[in-house]
Amino acid sequence: MIDARGPRWSAGLTSIVLIIALITRSPVVIIIQLVQFAFGAFAGPPKSPYAWLYKRFVQPRLSKEFESEDVRPPQFAQFVGFLFALLATVGALSHVWPLFTIATSFALFAAFLNSAFGYCLGCKMYLLGVRLRRG
Predict the structure, then answer these.
(1) Which of 28, 2, 32 is nearest to 14 (CA)?
(2) Residue 109 domain boundaries
(3) Which of these, 24, 30, 80, 105, is most buried using a 10 Å CB contact count?
(4) Domain count, the chain
């Protein structure tokens, strides 16, 4: 279980990084986000660099009472973000800018939805997959 506010805060930071990546077309910036997504997807969201920033600088300033959530849906969302950032990285490094722009824009859309409205698209995909597997 994790503090549900953390992934939403991380999505806000992700949105900023992805906007910078789109504006600058910087492979370095998209690789930074790729690494963030990799930590979240493979080690779990609480082990990611953005989670460390949240726990160190943001969470201490918030109410000690918080709503918790299962880590698996946000971890799946991080994996989906990782895939889009991987495509964007391939696009940037190979100078296939439409691939970079489309992949980065999809990741930005999902991050913005979570950050601004608390709607985690990847989490909803995870829950739908669980329901479909259960039949």
Answers:
(1) 32
(2) 2-62+70-134
(3) 30
(4) 1
